[in-house]
Every structure is written in C-alpha cells, then in structure tokens.
Fold:
Amino acid sequence: MSADATETPFDEYREAVDRPLARLFREYAPGRLGWFSVGMAANFVARMASLVPPLLLGTAIDAIFSEGGDGEFSLPLVPDVWLPATESAQFEFAVVAIAAAFVCITVFTWIYGVTANLFAHGVMHAVRVDCFEKMQRLDMTFFDDKQTGEVMAVLNNDTQNLERFLDDALMNSARLIVMTVGIAGVLFYLNWQLAFVTLVAVPAMVAFTIWFMRIAEPRYVRQRSAVGRLNTRLENAIAGMNLTKTTSSEAFETERVADASRNLFDRTMDVLKLSYIYRPGMELLAGLAFVATFLVGGLWLAADAAPGPLTGALSVGDFVVFLFLTQRIVDPLAEVSNIVDQYENARASSERVFGLMDIPVHVDDPADPVNITPVEGRVSYEDVSFSYADAEGARTDTGAESDGEASFDGPVVDAVTFDAEPGETIAFVGPTGAGKSTVCKLLLRLYDVQEGTVRLDGHDVRDLARSDLRSAVGYVSQDTFLFDGTIADNVRYGHFEASDEAVREAATAAQAHDFIADLPEGYDTRVGERGVKLSGGQRQRIALARAVLADPPVLILDEATSAVDTKTELQIQRSIDRLTEDRTTLAIAHRLSTVKDADEILVLEDGRIVERGIHEELLERGDRYAALWMAQAGDREAAAEALADSN
Structure:
C-alpha cells in the first residue's frame, strides 16, 4: 500500500490536535457536569457498599463462629458503642447490614447507570451535531477532493467510540480507582503485611499498561482511518450501482470493497494481537496476586505463626476477607485492559473529530456584513480569476494566501469581466471544461476569487452574509439533487413554510404539475434516495419548480434543460422565458438554441472570454460561436472551417 493510501482527509489537522480527550471535556462537559457528578458519586457509594459484605463476614467469623467466639466484633470507621454486644444481636446486625449493603449497591448502581448514560449520550449528541454543523460550513473545495465516507466515519463511528469511552471506560476507571483504593485501605487496616503481598503485582500492572498504551496508540489511529476508507468505498459503490451493473463491473467493485475490508481487517488484527498479549497478561498478574495471598495466608494459619520476615497474628476471619477482597480486586484490575482499549480508541476518534472541527473555513461571513435588502440584481465581474489549485488559499484583502492543495493545474477562470443589469440574461457557452459553471459558482461564493471582484448591486460578494447572498441568487444545476422525501418536500426545500398552493403553482410554471398529478400519490410521492424513482427530466423540472418558488432576483441556470427531451425542453423553455423576464439570469447552455435570445452571449475557452455579443452578431462574425452553432445544426464541415478560421 502506498503512503498516499494511508492518508485521510483529517490527518494534517488531526496531528495538530493537542490532548484531544481533555479538550473533549473542556468543550462538552460544562452544562452536563451535574449528571457526571451524580454518576461518579453514585458509583463511589455503590463500590464502597460492595466492600461491606466481605468485611462483615470476616468480622462475624472471628467474633461469632470461631471456636470460643473470642474475636472482637468491630468495623472500620464505626464506633464500637454503635455495635451490639451479644453474639445473637451481632449475628442479626450482620445479616441486616449485609442485606442493606446489597440493596444500596443495587440502587446506586441504577442511579450511576442512568446518569452516566445521560452524560455520555448527551456529549455524543452534541459532538455529532457540532461536527455536522462544521461540515456544512466547510468550503466546497473540501468536498471537491475529500471522501464522504471519511466524514460519515466521524459522524457515526467516531462519535460512538466517544460515547462508549464516556459511558463505560470513564466510569469503569472510577470504579477501578475506588475499588483499588478502598480494598487496599481495608486490607492495610486488617493486616498491613499481608496487604503488601496482595498488592505486590500492582506496580507491574502499571508498567505493563504504560507499555501497552505507547505501542497501541498508532495502531488505533490506523484502524480508525481504515474504517473511514471502507465507508468511502461502500458509499461510492452504492452510489454508483447503476454504472456498476450496466458495465458488468460487479466483480471489480467487489474486489475493491474486499481490499478496503481486508485493510480494515489487517489494522484491526494489529490492535487485537497486542490486546491478546495485554489482557491475558493483566489477568495473569492479578491471578498471581491472589495466589500469593492464598499461599502466604495459608502458611500463616497452618503454622499459627507468621512465615519468613512477617510478624504478628492472622485470624481466620481476616484471611477470609483477604481472599474475598483479593478476588474482588482481580476483576477491576483485569478490566484495565478494556479501559485502555476504549481509551486508545476514543483518543484516536477524538483526534479525528477535532481534526474535522479544526479544518479552516476560508469562505466565511465577514465580521460586519453589508445589508443588501432589497436586491435589485445588478451583477458585475471585474477581471475575475480563479484556480482550484489555490482555492483553499483564497487571496485576502492583505494579499496573503494560505496554503492550498491543488485540484487542477492552471486557472479555471482567467480575467473574466462582464456586467448584467437587472432583468438581463447573460449566457455562457463553450466546450466542456471551459469554466462556465465555475464562473457562476463564484457569484454564490461556493468559492472565492483569487483575483478581481464579483459584485452584486455594487457590493463585493465577500462583504455580504452568505445567507443573504444565496437567498438572492437561485441556482438550478444540471446535476439535480433531490432528498429522499416527497415531491412537495423537494419543491419547497429552502422555503419550508410555503403553502401547498404555492408548491403547485411553482410546479405548474416549471411544466412539472402534469406528470406529478399522474403519479399515484401526486405531490406526496416519495422520490427515493437522490430522486432515483424519477427520470432525469422529471428531477430537473422539480429543481426548476424549486427555483420558481424561491422567486430570487438573480437566477443561475446551469444547463437546466440538459436532461429533457426536445418537446419538454420547449415547454420548459417557455416557462424559463417567463421566469427570467424580470430578473437577472446567468444561463449556461450546451444547446445554443436555448440562449439565442440572451442579452449577451459569452463564449469561454480555457477560462477566458474569447467572444461576446448577441446571437446574430456572433453568427455574422463567423468565429467560435458560429462554429458551435453550425455543429449543432448538423453542418459539421462548415463548423470545422469556421473553427479553423477562428484559430
């Protein structure tokens, strides 16, 4: 696998994220600390209550059940005057106290579970929404060359990893600390010498854990990246299913998905192989602590004397408590492996989350946007140039540029200048790749120019709030996108409060009402994902209806009739003519017949305007436009001659 194949869109920013989990708490814990604090407190009480039964059992063995019953009935932190004096009363007290401890454990474990989940899922919800909101603010250049599967991995997989960490790992860490400290305290209270024997494995566990975390971190990063690449491959394969089937490329796509899945399998196994060493190792160390306690304590009782350098006495009750609590400490210590596993996974995921959050937005609102209400619709381009190679480093007022990543070499728009007065139609024609669509997208600030100025009503579009600008400019693309929902929902998209009557009027104006009315559910017909249940022409008419409903003062038509037949095109063109009568229109056309009545026609090649004028003038000139016109009219020889003369 090449180095490039291991890179993800977020690596540059992910690597710059400092202490991602601390940042997660700093930015998302405030406002939810109440639930977190209650959960931690409940967890503490439940764990402390779990120490009571074995401690009472050991005390009862020594004071009540041992031969002679001469043991002292006492408990840590409980004054002796509070405890009963007779054996029968002591037995009853022990039974009631143990039952109460189990009830306490149940109640506070429930409280902990509810509050911990409220905290964890609340943070996950906020992170997911913030990630999506940031994604929507990112420049179009991000979506031009970034993979949507990577973004989906952040919004789904990575946020779920954070939830698991906050819900399970964090609370289990608190449980581990409370249990370890609590058990150690009880053991040292009962017999400090045997306690050292029991806890001798803890330093080794700490060292083993530190080693594991250092080795595991880069493996988790690679695993999370592999998840994103697999998501991207699956998303592309599903979106391109029609092409796959019509070209009999199922085997090829299966192989590509298999490669991505195998890469994820390999990265996951890299993590699991390390876990297969760490987890059994932790369990072994914890088990050795239990064996050491049983060995030393057993010898102590069997010989009725302290073995080796140890001194003093050990009662049967204390030995039973040691065995119980040592077994209790084995589980939380062995759980360290899962905690570290979830921690490393969450750390890698939080780096990707904040990597997305930290991607800079270049096309943003100015600090003090100009109010353009009402919009007249004057559009002007003044010596405008743009290159995708520098799109992320759009030139600022100071002339400084930030680093950008090249998508295409050379300028896509080169020194373009034109004016459109309110009510005028400016048409753009030219070969594929001439920069026609890009010119129009600069008006919407989907990209920012690197040189020159785009103005609306005399104001630089960079001085306007994006919402105001885009509300004033309607855009109908040749690549029509419909959301999964009803036809009515898609027509009123962006103007969600529009009435049903307004939706029908807009559809009628776009020549869409008749085919919608013929559908079984009419305007309530669901269009499917990306509008797959409709034809290309039907989707374009719905997009036109959406623009009619918006009623913008400026309209961009990017080959808006490219997917319809000639008859429908004529019908739609009449609607477009009515739609454009009183508004400024920028029309991109492949079929020149649709723009021959434009107020000015601009012919673009390689991003430059090479011809301009009205239809009749351009035909008389016999240059590039005339060649395009004759080629579409079927006179290819004349078109070739005109094109040769123009060159």
